[in-house]
Amino acid sequence: MRKTTLLILGIFIGCLNGFAQTQLSVEKIMQDPKWIGNFPSSIRWDDQGKTIFFNYNPEGNPADSLYKININAPDKIEKVSLAEQRNFIFRFANSNLAQTKKVFVENGSIMIYDVASNSKKKVLEIGDRVGTPSFLANQDRISFEMSGNLYVLDLKTNALERKTNIRTGSKPQSRDGGKLNDRDDWLKKDNLELLQVVRERDEKREASRAYREATATEDEFVHYLGSGQMTGLQLSPDEKFATFSLITRSENKRTAVPDYTHISGYTTDINTRSKVGDEPTKVQLGIYDIENKKVITVSTSSLPGIKDLPDYVKDYPEKEWEASERIVTVGSPVFSNDGKRAIVNIRSSDNKDRWIALLDLATGDLKNLDRQRDEAWVAGPGIGSSFGGGTLGWLPDNKHIYFQSEETGYSHLYLLDVTTGTKKALTSGQYEVFSPFISKDMKSWYLTTSEVHPGERHFYKMPLMGGKMEKLTSMTGNNDVSLSPDEKNIAILYSYSNKPWELYLKPNNAKAEPKQLTSGLTEEFKAYDWRDPQLVNFTAQDGASVPARLYKPDPAKSNGAAVIFVHGAGYLQNVHKWWSSYFREFMFHNLLTDLGYTVLDIDYRGSAGYGRDWRTGIYRHMGGKDLSDQVDGANYLISEHGVQPGKIGIYGGSYGGFITLMALFNASDTFTSGAALRSVTDWAHYNHGYTSNILNEPFNDPIAYRRSSPIYFAEGLKGNLLIAHGMIDTNVHFQDVVRLAQRLIELGKDNWEMAVYPVEDHGFVEPSSWTDEYKRILKLFNDTLVR
């Protein structure tokens, strides 16, 4: 009996040795994130630069509330009362040039806020819906939009002037509908003879019309929008012109996602997006000439390269390609402060070109200042999109513009003299620039860059016309800076790889040390020694140096198995030195490492943070280099870290789920098992904005879609596959995995399973769903890689 007991005990201890122990569990790390702590977000200053406001939740309420810290009493964190919040100045108020006053809308009234006195006053009560008001070149005058037209208020005289006369729809026809045919003319006359009341009303109407014509002093100019929708109506600072975008939307068929758990008890369709290959929305820029009472539509036919065909057409020699003017979107003009010049950002609908052009407001003519051509697609930090959002503006001299460009392969800051065309790079090197802005005294730039390391962000100051950058932050990680309005202090949202975001404060100089103002971690979270993942690089088969996060187990606990994590989005950076948006996965990787797994998290081709060539490395072939980077990562683990061939799994969500499918279908000799979460299975069924950048359109470039979509490679499945998807996913639709499931059934594959989550969208919300999903992932790896 004793020998039997000892034998059983020995077997039990052997099992414990085979599966290392951990303080962590899936249930623990996938619970409500509040167990980690509460952390500040959305930092902003008061206009005097004395108080920092931020969203926070130290009381563990269902949602964050607004809190504040006075910099003169930095140890005191106070909740902002609702009464105090009601007295706040609208966050999107516009300042005058001197930044001494702000104009904003409050409850249908236009308000002026004086920074020095910290007081506001009502200057015009409208009661109607009012668009965001702005100061004009004459700083005593402000413009605003109301009922689809522009008005100007003179702050000295209180005179109100309407500047435009724009109406929706088409110009109305006369009430009689024009000349009648013989039949209708007879019917009208007969009706007037028979019916006295109708005849009397017609006589009065004709008398009124004759009076209006006799008393009219001049023809009133009215511009009708027709079937289009107007957006972006604005007045030039010199008040001579108004500009607007006229949008004509195409009738693209939209998709529906069934909600099987709707509160009504009925299956209800959620109307969502269309699919790639949309007919493009037509966007025209209109110029309203106020003095000459006319509207000009800007023509883009003079832009250099407007008829250029993309290089990929060479793969389709059998097709006739017409070199015609491409469809473009002309953005809203950006005016110089004196109102004498305007520039526009223009993007081609095929995503290959961005032009920055000088706009002649009197004629609508364009003069190209800078063209950025990319045979893949134009993008990158500070580049923006067809509808703005990028770095673009004027220097105080009203003749230099600034913008960002990937001309050198990395997004940098440039100046261009519009009078000479001379362009100058203010920054350069193998790093990227983020969110530059001009100082209050108009003498310097403030900007964030990745110059120190691709996985760090630091804040700098630089002379306006270029020169040496002064680094103002020092903490290793991500320093997300908010500069006080008086530019004397810096509030920093800071985090490190294993330390979530906290708020810090320091004077605006390089030598000052930051003071930590918040400390939100719970004791439960701090009780575990969270790993600081090692940042490594390995060499890909094409010679590229691929960055990754490496989690290594204690050699005594290593089980010889490995898991590779594939981040989502494609264009996202996860190999960095700050707290990841994939914090659940970070904790899961700690759990895996405790259990003896080696974990590798790769910033594969297509990821953000490494310049243009890395960003576009997936052009026309998703599942190409982005997949081979995973294979090369696996080989790196085998050759350098003792991982055993045949014991490597892979998982990821969204784009990461897509790569997992491609790995199980096309690299089955490398990956034994994988978990594909909320995965794209066929790119022809995804949205237009994302997909057409990378793969063009399916009817123009079917080669790109065929070689990039997992559903075409499902016959290659050999390993063990877990598919998991939310059933009300309005981003990557549940339909994607339903179609793949049918394909796997038809192929006779039986080494796969699917878990569905009826109440989840693309980003899971419920801890129960997260827990169920990751318990399945852990079981998959334990069953297929360890035993």
Can you tell me about this structure?
This protein has 787 residues and is α+β, with helices and mostly antiparallel strands. Among the domains are: 70 residues; 61 residues, no CATH class; 258 residues, Rossmann fold, CATH 3.40.50.1820. Helix content is 20%, strand content 30%. The protein has 14 helices and 45 strands. The strands form 11 sheets. The protein has an 8-stranded mixed sheet, sandwiched between helices. Strands 21, 22, 23, 24 and 25 form a 5-stranded antiparallel sheet that branches. Helix 13 links the parallel strand 44 and strand 45. The longest helix has 20 residues. The chain is globular.
Level-2 CATH architecture of one domain: 3-Layer(aba) Sandwich
Output the structural class.
alpha+beta
CATH class of one domain: Alpha Beta
What is the strand arrangement across the widest sheet? 38-39-41-40-42-43-44-45
Beta percentage is 25-35%
Number of strands: 45
Globally, the shape reads globular
Weakly predicted, low-confidence segments: 1-18
- Whole-Å distance between the termini? 29 Å
In round numbers, the mean pLDDT is 94
Query: Considering DSSP H and I runs of 4 or more, what fraction of the residues is helical?
Result: 10-25%
User: What is the H level of CATH, i.e. the homologous superfamily of one domain?
Assistant: Alpha/Beta hydrolase fold, catalytic domain
The major sheet is characterized as:
8 strands, mixed
Q: Rg, please?
A: 31 Å
By DSSP (H or I, 4+ residues per run), the number of helices equals: 14
CATH domain topology of one domain: Rossmann fold
